[in-house]
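User: Predict the structure for this protein chain, please.
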Amino acid sequence: MKILVVNCGSSSIKYKLYVMENHSVIAAGGIEKVGIEGSFLKVTLPDGTKRVIEHECPTHSEGIRLMFKTLLDPEIGAIKSLDEISAAGHRIVAGGIFTKSQIVTDEMIEQWKPFMELAPLHSEAHLKGYLAVKEQLPDLPQVFVFDTAFHQTMPPKAYMYALPYRYYSEMRIRRYGAHGTSHRYVTQRAGEFLNMKPEEHRFITCHIGNGASISAVDHGKCVDTSMGLTPLEGLMMGTRTGDIDASAILYIMEREHQTLEEAVNLLNKESGVLGITEMSSDMRIIDDAAMAGNERAQLALDMYDYRIKKYIGAYAAAMNGVDAIIFTAGVGEHQWDVREEACKNMEYLGVKLDFEKNRKNFGEEEIISTPDSKVIVAVIPTDEELLIAKDTEELVAKC
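Assistant: Here is the predicted structure, written as structure tokens:
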């Protein structure tokens, strides 16, 4: 069985084609600048080389057509007929009340639409991607895999906000979280790699990238997560504020006569590491600047690491301890200094980091704590696309 995984952003389309018998990727690519002049497709060939195809994609429909055309290309394609594709799985950022992945139907789409506004840029693109695939292959089964589904096991005390209850009952204002597909994947993979069944242990999973979140996974179920109604809440991120006193935003809006749109842009695109450094949201650049003595870059790193440490401590308290701390995603997998600072001075929890192993690890699946550490600390590279493919395969097999 071949499963196509599609991840549509507001101006991008990423895809992978899996052979599910061995979970191999036989085609992968990404279209950038959809709807913008100068769009192109970058294809990764099986030998690792890349090919760039310049092609104007004014719409997601045109981008999906280019994707299918490339998959069929005699030279760089992977299949001879689109009939070889058994199903398509889509990453959906905001799933609202959905607790598991779903085969897409018209009825399901209507149930999902009220939650689209929780991630407006992502949701519109997800819907366009689904419709574009349907336009080309109307009979192909398609599956939505919701990033928020993993967090639906949180108890009310964790997901409720202390607002008048009517905002929950009428508008469903609550914490939904994000990155759930990644948290679910690394929970499962950590269980296999560490020989620790998730349903018998307490994990803290740290998805640390340009967008970042931490989850408390108690005996296989998420009981808390750092992101909230939207991906804005929680950790300090590349361009997002993370946790902040709402009154600070109201004060800024009043003083600077900001519109709602300007305030949203400030919180999501101008803050975080970029806002503090006024340099970049790329942690590699910030690392280099801090090493060169840039005080603002060092401040950003200190703030970034400190908030990760605070959430780890909070979730250990919530679960009455922790058995394993897992780092994943771009920063979590590749930046040893962030892992080191987040785990320093946590001996009270039983955390002992192997500093040498940690400093040598750049994204390899490995235990980076010492043998006598009561809490295992590990790096587990995430693979959200593979989990989407597996969910899709499982649902389609039941049809």
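The chain has 15 helices and 14 strands.
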